[in-house]
Specification:
- The protein folds into 3 domains: about 100 residues, Urease, subunit C, domain 1 (Roll), CATH 2.30.40; about 240 residues, Metal-dependent hydrolases (TIM Barrel, Alpha-Beta Barrel); about 120 residues, no CATH class.
- It is α/β, with parallel strands linked by helices.
- The chain has 20 helices and 25 strands.
- Pfam families: Amidohydro_3.
- This is Amidohydrolase 3 domain-containing protein.
Amino acid sequence: MHDIVFRDALIVDGTGAAPFAGDLAVEGDRIVQVGGKAGAGRREVSAGGRLVTPGWVDIHTHYDGQATWDPVLRPSSNHGVTTLIFGNCGVGFAPARREHHQALIDLMEGVEEVPGVVFTEGLRWDWESFGEYLDTLGRMPRTVDVGTQLAHHPLRVYVMGERAIRREAATAEDIAAMERLAAEALRAGAFGITTSRTDQHMTRAGEQVPGRYSDHAELMGLARALRTAGRGALGLNADFEDVEAEFAWMRDFARTSGRPLYFLHFDRAHDRARLPRITAAIRAARAEGLALTGQVGGRPAGLLLGLSTDLNPFILRESFAELATLQMPERLARLRDPATRARILAEEASPRLLRLLPPLSRFIATRWEGMFVLGEPPDYEPTAERSIAAMAARAGQTPQDYCYDYLTAGDGGRMLFFPLANYATGDHAVIRDLLCDPNTVFGLSDGGAHCGSICDGAIPTFMLTHWVRDRARGPRLPLEFVVRRMTSETADFMGLSDRGRLAPGLKADLNLIDLAGLRAHHPEMVADLPAGGRRLIQRVEGYGMTMVSGLPVFEEGEETGVRPGVLLRAG
């Protein structure tokens, strides 16, 4: 007798094959039958034509700190993710000497927008080496499986101390030490190494990250570590202002390491030729036999703007800032006062706040044509008619007046969507091209990061609701294609051969999904992080069950309390 049988399911097996009807049976932590008519089960679930898919394998998250205290890891786990990988973008918390703890917290706060106080209270720091960090992760019972990569910035700080923070060049001795420690981390179970070479990533103090300008010799040291370990990949984020120069060292890295290299792949509205140049460079590198891959997301990289989020169009005005610490009901009452409203709308950006707040604050402050009403259900492919500028014109108001009144209406939870990348054409045409490019891998959920400005940990659900079912402004994508991109392809990319497909003998990580009823709600802010830290989450309906290692961890949206998740070690 099987432990659990899903009867009459529409099976999407993760390989890209067409969906097919049948039963799926599980025994212990393994799948034992896919399709056909299964024998009896100790528990039988009537799928009734609902989808059964592999669990989502999310390879770009930032739960580096949260995974040490939180066994559940929303908003990824409740959106069907059963395996997640963090340590991305070169930031993390290991290896770490005691004297550098605050510097690494400031780095994570600056790059990934998680309040530093959350880490100050939440991290136990019962590790120094990367291997000890893995041991800490491995001791915690958890809902889903997790793995991590070695982040370059903390490695550099561990070896070089203040010289790394000042972005000094590494000496030959420094490079040898980083190479040795990186090889040790990879042998201990790191899934690769990540770094960052973008001006967009800055510390809390507004400084460039430690590895921003690491030279060729230092990067080749990391390549040799990957070659020595014989596993893992290099992941990075770069500005690609000089595509030829970046690809020159990346090709050298791939040749030296013999391992894959992947990077975040975006367009830029100010440089429409950038994306085609990078795409062509990937193809040329692959023609040389080099495993260079672009990592792409499923919707525009952007921000959520509202009264509860980190940023909004009025954040640079002193009279608005004075009310920031008030609880939402009192804050709304004050904001709706006609005198307060008039005072705020009459103000310009404050020089004091311009010095204190991110440069992005100034960029968004008056870009009314680039802000769109998010709505319920959330609309991440809005037309120009949904911009604040267009809606204000129709209402006969100035954009700032219209925006102020919109955000201060309701319960204060309304939000605007502000796309930053992959929306230069005003639709998702570029994103569809990137998703369909065979030289890309799916990622970029950023789960666990940017807690006050995005909620892209929910993006696997969006991939089904938008790209498979609902998209109206252009072609959709086949169900089996989207599922493959989020399961077998991401699992294979990280060397996880035991998951990502529904086949006998493989790990029983799966989702039972009502595609017609699947719905991710409007993001909402909750204060459930250590020290009362806030983050955006999205409630979801339509997941009948999420199973990890043969055990249901969510049923009908409710956590079961079962903790079958483990730390994954590469190799």
